[in-house]
Amino acid sequence: MKIKTRFAPSPTGHLHIGSVRTALYSWLFARHNKGAFVLRIEDTDVERSTQESINMIMDSMAWLNINWDEGPYYQTKRFDRYNEIINNMITYGTAYKCFCSKERLEYLRKVQIKAGKKPRYDGYCKQNKISGTIPHVIRFCNPQEGDVTFKDQIRGNITFNNKELDDLIIRRTDGSPTYNFCVAIDDWDMGITHVIRGEDHINNTPRQINILKSIGAPIPTYAHISMIFGSDGKKLSKRHGALGMLQYRNEGYLPEAILNYLIRLGWSHNNKEIFSLSEMIDLFTLNKVNRSPSLFNIDKLKWINHRYINQLPAKYIAKHLYQHIKNQNINIQSGPPLTKVIELFSKSCKTLKEIAYSCRYFYEDSFTIDNKYLNFTHYQLLEDIKNKLMLTANWNIENINQVLLSTADEFKVNKKIVYMSLRIAITGHDGSPTLTHVIEAIGLNKTIFRIEKAMNFIKNKKNNI
């Protein structure tokens, strides 16, 4: 039997971290077993489904390199198929028309709640064989006796009593089929062997199994992944750092870091933390997925992202960094290559956005110098450094460092004072990567220009006193 899994998001908003983890686990299980992975868009909620959300789903999966073998299939394009099966079910007595009004159903619900019972449809139209042509829904004729038991690949055997399941609506009055019915038929038609999804779908599983049994369809194997909570154990939200998937890209995370973080968010292999994609595929199995809830930790994600910034080739990182540079409106034509910038900032910056924000001074001279850092006592230091740098035969880190040390020695000042005054003059900041490496990357001409600019700043400051 060829393994076949699916990812079936609803296009009603952003693709969030929990959904992407579901997609990843389904994709890895298929790849590990040399099977197929299907993308299905569950867009039966026509009022809330949008093309924008569909585009975000596609873009997110493309960015993460979670590729699909079949699809995307759209449920709204399969209504004829669903209705064909529903009509057959009516003919064979496994579904029936229900003409009950909203008022009757609401009254029934109140009576049942008052009696301490679970609200459920009482089968009135089925028992009385009501018929007609006025607006109606179609209900599934759920078994009234026995149990539904399935072996969840993460949680073990799960059993539901059929008496707890009512005759759910499978087609609305407007003729549109409902979620649980569409899902069951899709899984059958598409040959899905393993359904891997969130634990919030556990209660849907017995209903879908009963529908599949009623039409003689095979039952998939199910695996329900636990929820993801915030670090405080509460429902995951933006305050925990949870974002739509493309927002993580915009915040400067690498796709490899996201995938690595997500696979560890409920799955483990010994004490290993960092996994290449090929290792994920080779090692992933459902029996290592934890049934306990996972806690989302943005600091852990940043730690993993930082590791990947330092481990992946600089040329590859530069391709992802370039978009962030564009977002900051930085023109990189007159400065060092991005690979050089990555080399300088990879140890201190945990995201690509942070690198892009920090590296502007490599390409632009128009930064502001803070009054509190440079005064006339630094003027002669900067002038001496400028003159020595202009006479430097070979522009390299070692020679630049020698210039700075000799200036500190000649003026008998702590080298920290020399380095800080020059750092402010060159970058406009009191913090940067190793100064000599920064100066070497910026180049002689820009360095001299900025030192002269800082000297003029000091002159003007003195004249204005």
Automatic annotation (TrEMBL):
Residue ranges of every copy of the Aminoacyl-tRNA synthetase class I anticodon-binding domain listed in the record: 322-454
GO cellular component annotations of the record: cytosol
CDD domains: GluRS_core
Catalytic activity: tRNA(Glu) + L-glutamate + ATP = L-glutamyl-tRNA(Glu) + AMP + diphosphate
Single GO MF annotation: tRNA binding
Annotated motif 'HIGH' region, positions: 9-19
SUPFAM superfamilies to which the protein is assigned, alphabetical: An anticodon-binding domain of class I aminoacyl-tRNA synthetases, Nucleotidylyl transferase
Positions annotated to bind ATP: 238
Keywords for this protein: Aminoacyl-tRNA synthetase, ATP-binding, Cytoplasm, Ligase, Nucleotide-binding, Protein biosynthesis
Pfam families named among the record's database cross-references: Anticodon_2, tRNA-synt_1c
Domain Glutamyl/glutaminyl-tRNA synthetase class Ib catalytic: 2-303
Enzyme Commission code(s) on record: 6.1.1.17
InterPro entries from the UniProt entry: aa-tRNA-synth_I_cd-bd, aa-tRNA-synth_I_codon-bd_sub2, aa_tRNA-synth_I_cd-bd_sf, Glu-tRNA-ligase_bac/mito, Glu/Gln-tRNA-synth, Glu/Gln-tRNA-synth_Ib_cat-dom, GluQ/Sye, GluRS_core
Domain of life: Bacteria
Chain positions of motif 'KMSKS' region: 235-239
GO BP, one annotated term: glutamyl-tRNA aminoacylation
Subcellular location as annotated: Cytoplasm
NCBIfam families according to UniProt: gltX_bact (TIGR00464)
Summary of the function given for this chain in its UniProt record: Catalyzes the attachment of glutamate to tRNA(Glu) in a two-step reaction: glutamate is first activated by ATP to form Glu-AMP and then transferred to the acceptor end of tRNA(Glu).
Quaternary structure note: Monomer.
Family statement: Belongs to the class-I aminoacyl-tRNA synthetase family. Glutamate--tRNA ligase type 1 subfamily.
Annotated HAMAP family: Glu_tRNA_synth_type1
The protein's name: Glutamate--tRNA ligase
Organism: Candidatus Pantoea edessiphila
